[in-house]
Design a protein that fits this description.
Order of helices and strands: HHHHEHEHEEEEHEEEEEHHEEEHHHHHEH
Distance between the termini: 26 Å
Number of domains: 2
Helix content: 40-55%
Largest sheet: 7 strands, mixed
Strand order of the largest sheet: 1-11-10-7-6-2-3
Strand content: 5-15%
CATH topology of the largest domain: Aspartate Aminotransferase, domain 2
CATH class of the largest domain: Alpha Beta
Number of strands: 15
Bound molecules: pyridoxal-5'-phosphate
CATH architecture of the largest domain: 3-Layer(aba) Sandwich
Shape: globular
Structural class: alpha/beta
Length: about 450
């Protein structure tokens, strides 16, 4: 193992020192030795770099048991008869540096609530990134608005700010930046464009708890910020979500809307139900779990960041591995996922699927991430729906279809490799396993085809 480490270090030095040719001539013969059993790929029956399990998720402690049980025994399970949701809302708003927070049943409904209270609906256009969880598409379509995609910046995996303005027209009402993978989008550029064109900004921060742009938390950078507390997320309670914001009237409206349209603050009691509402209330149990989970969020975030930066330093010299870039304004990322790009040209043209299988076999779970989902039929179904046919001219929808090409995004979808946040909760030495496994695959690339 020690010997391997030395070779890897030599290798990285050679790789970052210069060209692949230098690597090929100097380093490969040293450890591409085909007779050497230790270096045989796990997919080819060799010994995996790692067999030790990775941290599991979610993680909980006894503190949640007591409060969940006491809520159960009280019979006060909904927020109208308890204080737990309110307590969490106060705590979360404070942690985020926002004036207010309204919790919802999940992140999807947080986004739907934000779109509704900012009056985005039929006939409106919303600028979004195609590189996101499908919920971002769904909430815009579900609001009978047109999701107008902007190509992805492959270096950062985020919406490309240079390409936003060309998509804006008189029907554009909002930009919905997603801090995808927990890495902040370029909020200086997005906010400047929004201001210039008088658009609202709704941040889909559903993967970006405690991420920061110039020292301010993601979710507080636009008009409203939305979060998810689903089981896999960094602040989980099974299902849960929140809208945060500073505008008291808008937040009153959020509360009222999510509570069947009952009066709240500036939504005055002109009748029993002064505004049109829905029910998206969080339960007391969800909030009890969140109050327990929130205690570990800061330390976990620090660990993920330290390990992510260390891992980047370890793998950035490997030919064909392009580490992700963070924009200059990013003061902290959340790392819901750790991404890099795989350039098969440097790996003997081995397709990404085979690289992913080889990496998994070495004991490093990984995935290829999102596909080009805007091509999957969901968008076409929306365009053919009565909602859309009634709200947009045929000419508009035809033009929309013609514009549905995002080559940088599609290329990224072919090259991306994701590692889960769980891996980043392990130790620094565990990050070495990830780097070792990638180097091992690189060394053996001729035997992967
Ligand atoms: C998880 C997620 C959502 C939706 O949240 P749910 O709580 O699952 O409804 C929306 N957007 C992004 C980017 C997400 O990752």
């Amino acid at each position: 193992m020690n010997k391997n480490n030395v070779t890897r270090r030599q290798f990285i030095r050679a790789a970052s020192a210069g060209t692949i040719a230098a690597v090929a001539s100097r380093t490969i013969p040293v450890y591409g030795n085909p007779g050497k059993k230790a270096s045989k790929l796990a997919v080819r029956g060799g010994k995996p770099v790692r067999t030790k399990p990775w941290p599991s998720w979610p993680v909980w402690d006894k503190s949640a048991e007591k409060s969940v049980l006491s809520i159960l025994r009280s019979g006060n399970w909904f927020r109208g008869r308890g204080e737990t949701v309110l307590e969490f809302e106060k705590k979360y708003a404070e942690l985020m540096g926002a004036k207010r927070c309204v919790c919802t049943v999940n992140g999807t409904n947080a986004l739907l609530t934000a779109l509704h209270v900012l009056d985005i609906g039929v006939g409106d256009e919303v600028i979004v990134s195609p590189y996101t969880f499908i919920a971002t598409y769904n909430v815009v379509i579900g609001s009978a608005a047109l999701p107008v995609f902007v190509d992805t910046d492959p270096e950062t995996f985020q919406i490309n700010p240079d390409k936003i303005e060309e998509r804006i027209n008189k029907n554009t009402k909002a930009i919905m930046p997603v801090h995808i993978l927990g890495l902040p989008a370029n909020m200086d550029r997005i906010n400047a464009i929004a201001k210039k064109h008088n658009l609202v900004v709704i941040e889909d921060a559903c993967q970006a708890w405690l991420a920061e742009w110039r020292g301010k938390k993601c979710g507080t950078l636009g008009d409203l910020g939305c979060f998810s507390f689903q089981n896999s997320k960094h602040l989980p309670c099974g299902e849960g979500g929140a809208v945060i914001g500073d505008d008291e009237e808008i937040m009153d409206k959020c509360f009222s809307y999510h509570n069947c349209g009952r009066p709240h603050g500036s939504v005055e009691e002109t009748s029993r139900y002064p505004i049109i509402g829905t029910n998206r209330r969080m339960t007391e149990y969800q909030a009890a779990i969140l109050l327990s989970q929130i205690k570990r969020l800061e330390t976990d975030t620090r660990t993920r960041n330290e390990n992510a930066h260390y891992l980047t330093s370890k793998i950035k010299g490997i030919p064909g591995i392009i580490t992700h870039k963070l924009y200059g304004g990013v003061t902290r990322a959340a790392y819901h996922l750790y991404p890099f790009r795989y350039k098969k040209q440097h790996f003997n043209n081995v397709p990404r699927g085979k690289f992913l299988a080889a990496l998994s076999a070495e004991g490093i779970p990984c995935s290829g991430g999102y596909g080009p989902q805007y091509k999957d039929g969901l968008i076409e179904a929306a365009l053919n729906s009565n909602n859309f046919k009634r709200s947009f001219s045929k000419r508009r929808l035809d033009r929309y279809r013609q514009e549905l090409h995002y080559p940088d995004n599609d290329q990224l979808c072919k090259e991306a490799v994701w590692l889960s946040q769980k891996l980043l909760l392990a130790s620094k030495r565990d990050m070495d396993d990830i780097a070792d496994a990638i180097v091992k695959i690189y060394q053996n690339r001729d035997r992967l085809a």
